[in-house]
Each structure stands twice: as structure tokens, then as C-alpha cells.
Amino acid sequence: MARLADYFVVVAFSPGKRGNGDGQGQILQRFPEKDWEDNPFPQGIELFCQPSGWQLFRERNPPTFFIAVLTDINSERHYCACFTFWEAIDRSQLQNRLRKDEEEEEEEEEVAAPVQPAQLFAPKSLVLVSRLDHAEVFRNCLGLVYTIYVDGLSTSLETVIGNLLTCTIPIMGGSQRTISLGAGDRQVIQTPINDSLPISNCSVALLFRQLGITNVLCLFCAALTEHKILFLSSSYQRLTDACRALLALMFPLKYSFTYVPILPAQLLEVLSTPTPFIIGVSSAFQSETQELLDVIIADLDGGTVTVPECIHISLLPEPLLHRTREALSMVLDPGLEIADLAFPPSTISASSLKMQDKEIRAVFLRLFAHLLQGYRWCLHIIRIHPEPVIRFHKAAFLGQRGLVEDDFLPKVLEGMAFAGFVTERGPPYRETDVFDELVANEAQRMQADEGSKVRVLQHIKELAEQLYKNENPYPAVTMHKVQRPTEGSHLRLHQRPFPRLDEGTIQWIVDQATAKLQTAPPVVRAERKCMVPSGPPLGTLMERNGLVLANSARRLEVVRNCISYVFESKMLEAKRLLPAVLRAMKSRLARQCLTQELNLHVQQNRAVLDHLQFDFVVRMMNCCLQDCSAADEHGVAAALLPLVTAFCRKLSPGITQFAYSCVQEHLVWTNLQFWEAMFYGDVQNHIRALYLEGTEENHLAQAGEEGSQEDGSILEIAALQCRLWPTMSPEKQRELIQKEESTVFSQAIHYANRMSYLLLPLDTSKNRLPRSSGLGDAESVSNSFITNSIAGSVADSYDTESGFEDAETSDVANYVVRFINRFVDKVCTESGVTNEHLKGLHVMIPDIVQMHIETLDAVHRESKRLPPIQKPKLLRPSLLMGEESVMDGLRVFLMPDGREEGAGGSVGGPPLLPAEGAVFLTTYRIVFKGTPVDPLVGEQVVVRSFPVASLTKEEKITAQAPVDQFIPEGCAQLQLRSCTFQLLRIAFDEEVASESVEIFRKHLQKLRYPQHIADTFAFTVGQSIKPALQPKAKEKNPSLRTISKNLVKNAKRTIGRQYITRKKYTPPPWEHRGGSQQPFPEDNEDEISVSEEVDRSTLTPATLTIRPSDKMTMSNLVERACCRDYQRLGLGTLSNSLTRSKNEPFRISTVNRMYAICRSYPGLLIVPQTIQDNTIQRISRCYRQNRFPVVCWRNSRTKAALLRSGGLHGKGVAGLFKSPNTPAPGPSQADSTSLEQEKYLQAVINSMPHYVDVGGGRNTLSGFTSAHMSSSALGHRARVITLSSPKSLAVKGRLSPRGKWGSIRASGRTSSYALNMEVGSRLAGKELLGAPPNGSPSEASFLRQHRASLYIIGDKSQLRGVKPDPLQHWEVVPIEVFEARQVKTSFKKLMKACVPGNPSAEPSVAYLRSLEESEWLTQIHKILQISVLVVELLDTGSSVLVSLEDGWDITTQVVSLVQLLSDPYYRTLEGFRLLVEKEWLSFGHRFSHRGAQTLAGQGGGFTPIFLQFLDCVHQIHLQFPMEFEFSQYYLKFLSYHSVSNRFRTFLLDCDYERLELGLLYEEKGEGKGPQPFRSVWEYVERLNKKTPAFFNYMYAPEDSEVLRPYSNLSNLKVWDYYTQETLSEGPSYDWELAQGRPEPVEDPGPPDAGAPAPSRRRIVWPCYDNRRRVEPDAISRLLEELQNLEMELGQVPGRWKETWDKLKAFQRAEAQEDGGGGKGVSSALLMASSGLSHQRRSLGAYLQESGVGSSAINLSLDGDASSTSTPSSGKPGGRRSNTSTLYSQFQPAESENRSYEGILYKKGAFMKPWKPRWFVLDKTKHQLRYYDSRLDTECKGVIDLAEVESITPGTPTMGAPKMVDEKAFFDVKTTKRVYNFCAQDVLLAQQWIDRIQGCLSDA
């Protein structure tokens, strides 16, 4: 029984010190006046009566009621029911009080008089304080007191209050009690059946109505995971209800933090407390809650929940969250399910609010039953007497539930609420409630119900009934009878104040009742304790990732077999299985299987092993532990713990090494929680055995094992003992307590030993701190290497969680002692070990540790004497001639990076990485060479290397994840990244000293960034010591080097001179010429030729050191690439006399031969004929880096010139284009430089042939044929039809027959080629036309009436404000270009995309994402776009000046691409070399600067401008494979060697620098004998003679073909140079190294009579083998075979090129004979055309419109044949289909080897019909040919049987021959396409299939 109310309090308003109406509460009276002994009076009640503060009001408010909750120091809750009404206040009394206050304070300021309304009202509160929560009863009782007072009833208030304070009611048990306070009232109080269940009335349902499902779930999760929650509402009662509801939802967990449903205004600072809370605050204070950054605010009135950004709320794990939402939706909104029904049921039975409240709680009860299902199986009972001590094994619970990675449940289990739950519900013998039954008995039912909503709802309703019945045990309640005040009574004007109560009367009533209670007999509460049911154990859950792998059974079999082989000493078999076992250890099942199998062998007394067995067992244990987390949630480390102290090997007599000394490097051993859980588990088993001793002896044997049976029985035993405990005698009780205590004590000693085993390192002499990141160490297995344990490894400090503290001077032993002491203190205190025993333990532990150290020293000494395990021999890499080793091999492991291919993994293939070998540093390369660690691929050699000069980043890395089992832990790791798209992640072996690693890094840095360019490999190759300088002798004929030096001297003096005068300069007579005036006098003769006299007159006489007769300088300049190209283009002639053609528009100027005007330009330049040299000097100053406009190419047809220059200086020529202020500026206003520049541009324009006829003809851009021209106008030459866009055929008209758009496969999105709207509109004559698809520029977009003669492509930022001038003949095209730093950034991202450092979860997605982020392809697109625009302009007769940035990056890219696209010569090997030499080398692209080749450039980083150009060429090559003489390999070769520094070609920034180093003219034959190549071109030339590696067999150019590639992103492909690698030999670009090792050919040896012939087949691995060599294309193979045959015949093998040229010439002749000029070609030609079924360069299709209307389909060899062709399927034709190529060379006539022939129907390609053809099967040529008819001699097509993959039965398709049996159809699948055939009947079809199959098998 308990008091209904403890205290009755009257609280009144007391005015504050200032007269502003604010006051404070004051307790007028309280009853009883003395505190109850069991329940002291709570402080601060007056604050809670008026939570918003005590204030006066102007009108009388109706009475209010709410319940505040106070929590005392013992966590007891006191419910304060506050009834507040308003009384009129005596104004004079208020003023007197205020005046008195004023006088006391003696304030000087004038105090504002209080407001004087008609009347003021002050609040007064009646408060009931109780420990019971009966809200309605309190409301009625206080209402009755108020009614008696306000209505003046006759009943005495003292009597009522006295009765109220003496009323007692039962707390629980479902009883019903009627009470009366003596005023004619009656109330019935029902007590709940079980007081452990919360009482919620309707509060939960109301909370959901106010906030909604999602918000309440969010608050629920926040409360469980200990966040701060604040409720806001303007109603106090709502705040109390909401807080009560949240607590009710948390049942069976109890909230143990700050809980204040109504917080008074004076205590608002409580909100900034650091601990979690649930608090309610009036919404009047909402503004003051805005600053709270870590509080979740729920606004009950607005229905919102605000979660601050810094807070992450962990939500319920799926699928529980979804199920809970669904169930709540069914309860709260039953209409939702039937909302869409056509015939909804007429009535929906909606529950009452009270019932709905219980249904919601039932949903949450089910949720907790799901979450905590099986929790009793993870309880550890460590003491039963005198009180049960229970611990919960969190890690095991999470592991069994598969929720280790979950965000929510681990936080809940760590929380205070759950700790209370274990304490309260852990005991096995106690009273149970609905939750216990639900967890134990309903688990199966809940799982079965999951699928069915109806059954779930049924269960919810059943639970809700139980909850409702608990709150309302007697539904048919007698009506309450309580008087209420009359309506409006609170508004009465003359209401007397609440009377002062008589204390004596009330105290007397209370005392009477107390005396009566003391004499009454005590109420005996019936015990309802029972054994708590445990419920079903947790089922074996799935793997952590949720998938039970299908092959897990097979894996377990492998594990079992391997272990049995080890113990049967079948070590070879075990070794073979070991890698598979180690890989299987990723799976939890395999790890558990391993522990079980090893356990079996221990029980069979097979724990003493030999060395090899010991190694294997320890390696498996290490691998097993490596994948366990520190928490050991699956109990694997727990199962291994007894085993590591059992398995051992004998090192020598009396000295045994146990397995624990080799498995110490794992985090789990330093985890205190792991040891505690292990200890408690063992204690539980021993306690169980203690109580089973008397009954069952046999259980003792299994005492050490954990299992479900044991767990179940320990709870039963504990329950039984708890039940018997009160009946035992005190002696028996003491005996049991002592037995239990000594059991715990003995286990503590045992664990002190175990912990010292696993924490003390084998080599205790290493006095180092323990570390917290120890991971599995495979090498600890080996005989030679002694592992350091956790306590023997390095760390700076140890956090207290993990066990160690910082210490400075102590040694390992002290740390281990301290760690064990801390463990012992914790577990012994918790499990009630006596103090004496605990002290004894503390004394014992140092001795245990010391004893163990002594044992270990002997083991360590002996283990050192074991023979070392053999490591693989280091493989030495082959070196280039002149390449020297800098650092010999350091033993390393090559680790896998983010590329999947080499590591096996999901891509499949062998795990080539990690590999074990050595890293070598040479003067040229970094090379790794070794073998894979995995024994299954151990015989392969893995090579990965890159040039030192290409290193972009070197960094130390730490292991991201546990490294492979084979790789030692804690070793130094480096990551080296190269711009040749290679990455070396290397882990140094433990034998490599850290000093060696540092030396390696220093050497690497020194080689990568030499002091000077002359220290790079290209210069130092072959020079071990630099030759000493020879004494100077006077030279008769100066050598080239001398000339170079003199030139440089002169140039140095002349560079940087200030040009003072601008007036016309008259040259003085020869003898008076000095060096003081302008160095470049104006030449009136308008020089064009180079001769002696001119030389003399233009050199600076003062510094003249070269005699006039020395022509070598000029002749060498003339031999440079640019000059050769100028002559080829007819841009200038060189003669020995002064006579020259005056009518040539351009001339070669020697103005820069001393590099004085522009250092980065070549010595000879092409300028307009009319421009004088001294003018050039002045013009050059307007341009950046003095790079003035020069001509670099001229279109032979339109005579349009392509010019290049640097960008304009700020105030340079932009002024030319800006509209001046005055309409006609005089010459005085314009700067002479600008005029000269204008003159220069005009001279360029004048040099072009003038187009008089502007209106029409081919001189204007309007000569283009419209892309929308009707197709009827197509002539015979209208050949190119892009099949990808049939709607808008991009057709070329008669006037521009040259040029072709991109390929058939390049169909992509529509993109406009106009670079921006402004330019596009200007070029199109202000008409914006839609561009056709595929990114091809619309020809119509170039239509305009007046086109400019010269377009200047400039940077938009420079040309801002430039206005077009209609009078000028030039036009500026401003475009936006990217800067060099953007290229650098983009390239870095591209490298990381193509060669990621770390593996990602979804490699393909990550690759595509990072590729897009790099924007590399966007930049390629931009460059191609600009280039095609320039090509268009040049092709239509306008000259173009490209004037971007400094003129050496993007400008170079664009002008090079323009020439490549426009001029077929540059698409040959010779031409491409010339192009690169001219535009990149001579015109000064800064290779050294952009490649960061020296120490000075280190900060600049690598900017691959040249690589970007080569990528553009690669994109064009892909689209036009028949237009290039060189292959893709050639481009990769140049890319590699442009950064490798093997050759001198791509070093230095310009010709001037090369001249300075004496490089420019040395390339021709210096030195005899074998010398390293200095020029890459020389190397390519030599190699090209030997092998067709650089040659493109598909080369079949069309004359004067202009290429227009598609540049859309969808048409661009990622270059395989970035992604491919060859692990068998390293990069294939150093030909000598790649060819050094011949391919291994299996030598069959003498064949056995019975043995089958050895197969020539071999597996080709994409990332391992060099596919080009292992599987060469057919032509290369045939050429090779031909060479071999010639050698066998004793002939000198001919050059491959000669053979190839002969073949082509022969076939061209044959084509003319047989085909009659293009009507058709022979089958030999058909097969051996140079593209082998490619005629269209871009792989597009030609359709010739013949008069008859039928499409002739044939293939031709060269572009000069006018016949057109289409490949059979639009894909590249067969590369291997040239088996007959050489065959037909020796057999010109078509041979009639007809093995089988007949008629077959064949389905044509490209939607063509079925046609009957005469087919011939030729076994000799191994081909299937077909003809139009039997008599036809001309073959229509050939199917090479070498390409046939399969022959399958076919099905008739559309248009197939009718009346033919379905079985007569068959398909022949080749590597290129599938051919559909149909025979006349089934028999014939079968015969054909058999014959073809026979042919294939014969081959």
C-alpha cells in the first residue's frame, strides 16, 4: 500500500523588487509540515507551479491544471499536480511592499510607478506531491478543494485535505479501490496488474498525431542512442504527455538521464548541460533555444522535428525500420490499405484513442522483441550467490545477429539504458512480464507472420489487449462522483481570497491515520517469481555481407583437407592447398571450421608438431586472426586461445616453442573487452560445473567448451539456486559463496598467465612500447624471423581503452604487468573476489610475467639457431646498352593497386600480384622483377618498370587494409607514380634496413631531378666518367660545335638590346660599320636567298667571329626540318645568287638566324615577301615572348596560309581592331608599331591569290554544297554517305571533292561546331544554322557573303572589347582555351582514374566517374574542335593565324593537328617526324619545362601538352585507320619516349638551347661502332627497317584527302596506352629489352609412342602477355615465316617493306587486269587489299549509285580505284583473313581447289535480302568462297575458315526462302560476324555442316 498524496502545498504570488508585475512564488502553507521519513519534501516546487514565471494579470483567467515531474537524488520521480487559479490583489498592499523595497535599496534613479489598471490578479497554486502517477485522481481531488472554496460549500477544507493526505491505495495487482474525501464525493482507483509496464493513457497516440510516424521514430532512435531531446509546446500538459509517451515507447528499456517534462524559465541554462536529456519547455522561450547546436527540437504545436547539422541520428537497421513504419501505418491509418479499392468496405473499425495508444505500443514491443531476440543466450552468469552477477557479451550478440557494422544497435547496447536492462532483466529467477513472454515464446510466430500484414495486425491487436487490460483491469468502472464549481465562478467580482487553513486540524487527522496504520498488520505481497524463459537460440545467421556463398561447402572441404594433410605430414599436398585455404579465411564459416578442426587434433594429443607442420598451423592461425576484428564478434579468437597454448614444437631438449609466440601481432589481444568476455565465459562454465558436480560427473570434461546447451543449462541452474537460496542454512550459503569466489580467483590466475603469453614478445630485450595497430604477420611463422608481439612493437602512446598508458622509462614487462593488473582489478571487483585474494593476485602477477620472460629468452635463443627459410632468388633485369645500375636489388613485395587485372579478384585470371622480388634503380629506369607470391602462379616472372624521368610522385604510404598474408607487417611502403601510366606500390622486406630505403629515395630524387639537363640519361649514357677537357688547339676548319658556340655567343650579346631609334636607318659603308647602332639594318633588297654577301651584311660586325666564307652555319640551318618542309610546300627558295623570283608571295627570312629576335623560334622563318627584316624586329615586340606571326604551312589548292604566333601583349595590336574614338585618325594618333603590324597582316593577305568573284564560284565559302541539298542531285562522285545519320546526309558536292567526315561508328550526340554563339553567327553570316549530328561541322554554317581573307584565332580574354571592322580583310575569332595548369590538373586526375592507387568497391563505376571528373576527354574535344574549324577555314580559301597563349602550347597542338588533317604527307612516317621536328622542336615547345626535367622545374610539375597532341592524333587514327602510314604503336612509342629521357630529341625548350649544348647538328653519324641512339628518329628508322612494328597494314591513302574527325565526347575513346600493361616484360617501348627474352617454346623432346602430340595452345593473359608478340596479326606472322623460310634456304632475308611493296604492286596490277578498271576484283585481291576489307578509311560505307540501280559491293586495294565498297558488317574487317596473301603471290591464277560445292541461300549484310549463291569449299586455301553462279569466275566474297568459331543450326529470318524445312537453316559464326545460310533440304544442309566441320578439324 502507498500514500495517494505525500504533501499538499499552497503557493502564492510574492511581488518582485521592481514594480513591473514580475514576482516569485512563495509557499504559504504545506501539509504535513514535517517531512515523511521515507520521502523528504522536494525543493523548488514554487518554480514548477508557474514554469513561465510568476506574473500579475489584468483579468481573471480560468483555473489551469498540469503535472510537473521532479526527480530526486535517488532517481525517484515525484509527480507534482499543480492546480492554479487567480485572485484579486490588494493594490495598496502591493504598493506598500514595493515602497519598502525601494527604501531598502536606496536607488537614486526614479523608479517607474507600476501600471495602475482597474484591478490586478495574482496566481495561486494548490499542489499535490505524490510518488504515484494518477493524473485524473489528482485533477479531481484538487478540483474538489477549489470547488469547496469557490462555491463556499459547507464541507471543511481541512477535513478534505486531511483525508486526502491519509488516503492509501495498493500499488499494483489489478485491484480496485473506492475513495472519498468526505465531501460527498466518490472516486474509483484501479491499480495496474503489473507495475513494470508503463501507464500511458492516450499520450502515445497523441504524440503520433502531433508529430507523425517518421518524426516520432526519429525521436525514438535519438533517445535510445542518447541524444538531447527538447519538446516545445504552449501547453504544459501536452509537454508532460509527450515526455511520458516517449518513455512508454522505450519500454523495456528505462531512460536514466535527465528527465524534466516541464522546465521552469529560471532553469533554462540546464539545456546547455553536456549529458543527454528529455526536457519540455514552453514555446514562449523558443527564441532562447535557437542557439543550442546539439539539441534535437520537437515542436509539438507545429508538428516538426529539427535535427541540427552536426548531429547524426542512427536509425533502426533495415528491414526493421520499414516493417515498423508499415505496422504503424496500419494502426494509425487503417484507411490507407483500402484507399484504392473500387469497392471499399462500408465501415472501417477505427480503434478508440486509448486502444490506438496500446496498439502503437504493441508495435514497439514487437520491435524490441526483434532487436533483442536471443539476448539471454549472450548473458554470462559469473556469480549466483549471494546475488546473481550478470554480464552481457555484446560482441557475440552483434556477431550472431550479423549487425556488427550496423549503426544503431551497437550504440544502444553501449548505452546506459541497456546496462540497466541487463541488471534488471538479466537475473534468471524473477517476476516476468509481457516482454519476457514475447521474446521467449513469440519469436517463431513473429518470424512466421512477417510476410502477412493481416497476421501482423492480429498479433498487434492481441498485445494491445494485454496492455489495455494491464491499465484497466476492470473495464465496467462505477462512475466517479466529484463536485465541480458552477459555470463562470472564476469570474465573480467579490470572490474572497483562499482561506488560511488550520494546520492543527490537518496535522491531527494525519497523525490519527498514521497511528492506525502502524497497528494494522503488514500487507504481505504474494511472490510471483519464476524462472525466466530464454526463448530459442539465435539461428546461424548469414555471412556479414548477407550472402552465404554458394561454394562455402567446397571451401570448408578444402580447409579440412589441408589440415588433415598437415597432420598426416603430406606437406606437398598441404602446400598446394594452402593459398586456397588462406583465401577462404575471408569467410567466417571457414575460420570457425579451422578452429573446430584444430581442436579435434588437440584432443587427439597431436599438439606437438614438427617445424613444417608448426609453420603451416601458425600461418593458418595468423591468417584466420587477420580477418577478425578486435571485438572478436564471431568468437574465432576465443576458440583459438586454448589452441595457441596447446600447439608447440620442440626446439631442443627441454625447450618448447608454443604457437602463441607467433600469433601475437593481432589487435584482438590488446582489447580489454575481449579478455573480459573470455574470462566471464570461462568463469560461467566453471560455476556451472561446480553445481553439476554432485549430479553429473561427465559434464566436467566439457567444462571448457561453450555452446548453446551449456548456456541454457547455466540459466536453469542459476534459477534453481536462486529459488533454493532462502531455504539454505547460513553455513551452506557461506560454503557456496566461498566456492564460487575461489572459482573466480583461480580463473583470474589462469588468465593472468594466458595474457602474459600473448602480450609478451618473444624477444623481450627490445624495450619498446606496445602499439595498437598490430596486424597479422605471416613471416612470424618462419623459422628465421622472430616476431615482435603487440608489446614489442612501436607506438607513441596507448589510449586507456586499449590497455596501456604512456610511460617513459619502464620496460615491456611493466606494461604487461600493468595491463594484466587493470584487467584483474576490473573483473575481480565485478565478480566479488575478496580483497585478500585481490592483493594476492597483484603480488603474483609480476612473478608470473617474470617467469614467462625467462622461458621466452631460452626459446628466443634456440629459435635463432633454426635454419632460415629459403627466400626466392633475386632475378636481375636486363639493361640497355649504356644503362648502369645505381642501386642493386632491394628485396620488396610489389603490392596490388587499384587495377583489378593483375590481382585476380572479380575480373578473374591468376593473382599475379602481390609479387615477391626486388626493386632495381638504374640510371634510366626503376625496375621491379620478381615472381607472384601465390604458389599457383609462382613460375611466372612479373616485371613492372618505368623511366626515372617519368616519375611524378613518390610518397610513403601506410597499409590501408590488412595486407596479404605473405607480406610482412610494419615494413616501409612506397608508392611511385609515373606519367607513363604506371604505379609501383612496394613494401620493403623486413631484411631491408630503413637506411637503405632512405638512400634509395635520395638516389631516386637525384636521378629524377638532375641539376642540369646535361646530367640526364640521354646525355650521360655510356659515359661513366666525364671526359677531361682537351687543351685548345687552333682550328683550321672550325667544327660544327665551334660554330654553335660562336652563334650562341653572338646571340647572347644581341639579345635584350634596347632599340632606341625608329627612324629609317641608312647602312654605313662596309668598312665603317660598327656594333653601336641597330644590329639589324634594313635590307632594301628584300632578301629571299641565302648567300655569302647577305650573310656578311646582316651579322653584327663587332662580334663577328665567323669568317664570311664559313657557310656551314647557314647550310646547317637550311638542313633543319623546317627548311626542308618550306621547300616542299613551295614557300621559299634557297639559291646561291641574289636572283630570285620577285612574284613569290613569301620568302625565307634569316632575321632570326642568331636567335636574337625570338629565342624560341627557329633560325629561318617564312614571312611575306614585302616585309623588311627590321620591321619584323619591331613587330615582334607586340607579341608575347616576341613570337610574331610566321607562316608554317600553305594549302596547295586554295593557297591559304596557316600562321602561328604568341598571344598579343596587353596594349599590342588589339588597338588595331578596336574602333577608335575619332572617325578618321591621322597618322600622328596611331602608333607606328600598330601600323607596321597592320601592314604585316595586310602583306599576309596580299600574298594570297585575290578572289575577285565574290558572288559565286569556288572562291567563296558559299561554294559549299548545302547539307540539306536534295538527294536527287547526287552525282557519280557523291560517294560518302554517313550511315549513322540518314536524315541529314552530309554530302559533298562537285566543288569540294576532298575531305571526309568521321566514321560509321562515330554516331553520337548532336553538337554544334561553332565555338561559341558569337563566332558561329559571324562565320555563318549572322545566320545560325542547326548543326548536323555527330559533331560534324555543318557546311552550311560557313555560308556567308563576305568572308574574311584572314581569320585570327585568339584568346577571348585578350580580345575582349575588340570590334569587327568591315573595312579590314581580317576577322578576329575569340575562343576560350584552357591553360597549362588545367591540363596539369586534368592529367593528374586522369592518371588516378586509369591507375588508381587503392582498390574501390565498384571499380568500373569509380573509373568512369573519375575519368569524367578529370575532364581530359573534354580538353581533347576542344582541341579537335578548334583544329577542325581551322581546317575548314583553310579549305575554303581563308588564311588563319593561330595566336593563343604564349604560342608554344595550345597553338602548337592546333597548328600541328591542322597540318595533319589537311596534308596527307604528314600522315606518313617521314612526314609525321617532320611535323614534330618543325612545329614542336624548332618552334620551341618547352619540353624541359613542361616535363619538369631538372631540379629547377621540380615545382612546376608535369604538364603533358605533347601527350595531349598525340592523344588527339590517336583519336583521328581510330576514326581514319586507312589514312595513316604509322600504327597506333608508333604513337605510344613517341608518348613513352617523349618523357623517358632515353633520347635527346625531346630535351630542352628550343633550338637555341640545343645549339648552346651543341646538340643541334650532331645527329649525323658521330662516332663509329655500337653507340647508344641519341635521336628517337634515328632509332625508329633503324627499327622500321627490321620490323613492321610502326607500320600500319591498312594504309591506303586517298590523294589530297582532308580529314574532318568527329570530336564529340561520345566519339572519343580512352587511349589504351593509359590502361594497358605487360607484366611479363614491362613496357614494350624499349625494343631491345622487350625482345631480349625469347618466347618460351615448349620443347616436346623425343615423343612417346603412346603420348598425344603436345598442344601448341597457350593461355594469353591480358595484363601479363604482350599480345602483339604472343598473337601477332596474320600479315606480321606471314612476313616472319617468310623471313624464316629464306634463312632456312640459306638466303639473306629480304627487308619486310620490299616484300610488302612487291605484294601491293602485284595486286594492283592484277586488279587492273581482272577487274577492268574497277568493275570487280579477283578473290586474291579481295583478300589481300591493304585494308583487308577496309576501303573506307573511317570504316564508313561507300554506296555507288550505278545506272541500273543495284548496289555493286566489292572491295578495292587503293584509293585510286574508283570502285566503291562496303565492309560486310560495318566493323573492321578481318585482320587474320590474309592466309592467302602470300599464297596468291606465288600462284597468280585462281586455283580450282574445289573440295565441295553447291548452291546455298545466303543472307546479306545490312538488312539485305537472301540470295542464292554458288559456294565452293576450298580445303587447300582453307576458305569458303562464293560466286553469283556456277559459271561465274569472279569471286564475290570469301569466308576464311581460320576465323570460324562455330557452326550452329539456324532459324529462318525475315525474307528467308519459303517452302524450305526449318532444319535446312544453319549459321556460321566467325570472329567478325554471323553468316546465315539455308540449303535446299535438310540432307544437303547436314552435308555442308559436316564438310565445313571436317575442314576445321583437319586444320
What structural class do you assign from the helix and strand content?
Answer: alpha+beta
Mean pLDDT: 75
Terminal Cα span? 103 Å
How many β-strand stretches? 45
Give a structural overview:
By secondary structure, the protein is α+β, with helices and mostly antiparallel strands. The chain is built from 54 helices and 45 strands. The strands form 12 sheets. A 7-stranded antiparallel sheet has the order 26-25-24-23-29-28-27, covered by helices on one side. A hairpin with a 6-residue loop joins strand 2 (7-15) and strand 3. Helix 5 (203-211) crosses helix 7, helix 19 runs parallel beside helix 21 and helix 40 (1416-1435) crosses helix 44 (1505-1519). The termini are far apart. About 20% of the residues have low confidence.
Give the key terms.
alpha+beta; elongated; seven-stranded antiparallel sheet; 45 strands; 1899 residues; 54 helices
Brief account:
The protein has 54 helices and 45 strands. With 1899 residues, it is an alpha+beta fold. The longest helix is centred in the middle third of the chain and has 30 residues, at 730-759.
What is this structure's SSE topology?
Elements: E1 2-3, E2 7-15, E3 22-31, H1 45-49, E4 54-55, E5 64-71, E6 77-88, H2 91-105, E7 121-130, H3 135-151, H4 157-166, E8 168-169, E9 176-179, E10 187-190, H5 203-211, H6 213-224, E11 228-233, H7 236-250, E12 258-260, E13 277-282, E14 295-299, E15 304-306, H8 320-332, H9 335-338, H10 353-371, E16 379-383, E17 389-392, H11 394-401, H12 409-414, H13 416-425, E18 429-430, H14 434-441, H15 443-449, H16 453-471, H17 503-519, E19 530-531, H18 552-567, H19 571-584, H20 588-603, E20 608-609, H21 611-626, H22 636-644, E21 648-652, E22 655-658, H23 672-692, H24 708-724, H25 730-759, H26 812-830, H27 835-864, E23 885-894, E24 915-922, E25 925-932, E26 942-947, E27 951-956, E28 973-978, E29 982-988, H28 994-1008, H29 1017-1020, H30 1040-1054, H31 1092-1098, H32 1112-1119, H33 1121-1129, E30 1146-1149, E31 1165-1168, H34 1173-1179, E32 1190-1194, E33 1201-1205, H35 1214-1217, H36 1232-1246, E34 1280-1281, H37 1317-1323, E35 1350-1355, E36 1370-1375, H38 1380-1394, H39 1403-1414, H40 1416-1435, E37 1439-1443, H41 1450-1462, H42 1469-1482, H43 1487-1490, ...
Helix pairs in contact: 3-4, 4-17, 5-6, 5-7, 5-10, 8-10, 10-16, 18-19, 18-20, 19-21, 20-22, 23-24, 23-25, 25-26, 25-27, 26-27, 38-39, 40-41, 40-44, 41-42, 41-44, 44-45
